[in-house]
Amino acid sequence: MKKILFFLIFVISLQDCFSQIEGLTRSADGKSIFIPTHGRNMAWFDASGNTISKEQFNDSLKTGDYIMSVLPDTLVNKFYLENKYPNKSKLIGTKVPSLTYPDIYGDTVKIGNTSNFSVLLFWSISCGPCIQELIVFNILAKEFPNFNFYAITTENKTVVADFLNQKNYKWDNIVIVTDYNLADYNPEIHYYPACIFMNKDRIIQNVCFKENLRQKIALMENLDKK
User: Fold this and answer.
1) Where are the domains of the chain?
2) Which residue among 4, 54, 151, 209 is least crowded, i.e. fewest CB within 10 A of its CB?
């Protein structure tokens, strides 16, 4: 489950933060945000809770690596950067529990039990970049048959099936797992797509958020051969 800060009123992604906080505007190029200071003081903090300038805050948001949390106060509105993705070093080396789910066709799947390496891609039908990643994912699954590829979403099977049919997507080389319950295993991924590489013992070997997915898989394959 996502961490919920006490007294946190808004947890807002970079994509929609402009429309959900009253008074936020952005520049014509859509990259910089400006927050009026009239009537209320503002305080800006990095992901470690250190005070930074508004300019540093904006520059950090533009990297796409952070989301913004707002903690309104009677005297000061406090704006915090939060890491969009979990710390890789905290995931690598940890163990993914045994997960058994029906795939989109209703067949029971024991995730990661039939190959030396498995790739778990967490995604959502509302995530545009996820679809492009899954098209690549499907191609890579054919190119690297010694890997297991799982596309995992918390969304309902019927909704996902309708989506695939409407868009005429044929992802036949990967296992599509729907209705995933984060209570079973939650790597604290806030934004999709995100990949986890694990070995046959379900130990996480690598994590991929924005890197070249094919390079990561090729690297894991080379390690397997050695």
Assistant:
1) 10-83, 88-225
2) 4
Q: Report residue 189's pLDDT band, with 50, 70 and 90 as the boundaries.
A: confident
Tell me how far apart the alpha carbons of residues 2 and 16 are, in angstroms, rounded to a whole number.
18
Q: What is the pLDDT of residue 13?
A: 42
Tell me: domain 88-225, CATH 3.40.30.10, correct?
yes
Residue 20 has pLDDT above 50, yes or no: no
**Hey, what are 122's tokens?**
């967490």
**Distances in Å between the alpha carbon of 98 and those of 20, 101, 104, 124, 158?**
39, 10, 19, 22, 25
Quickly count: other Cβ atoms within 10 Å of residue 60's Cβ: 17
**Measured in whole angstroms, how far is the alpha carbon of residue 94 from the centre of its chain?**
18
The answer to whether the predicted template modeling score (pTM) of the entire model surpasses 0.90 is: no
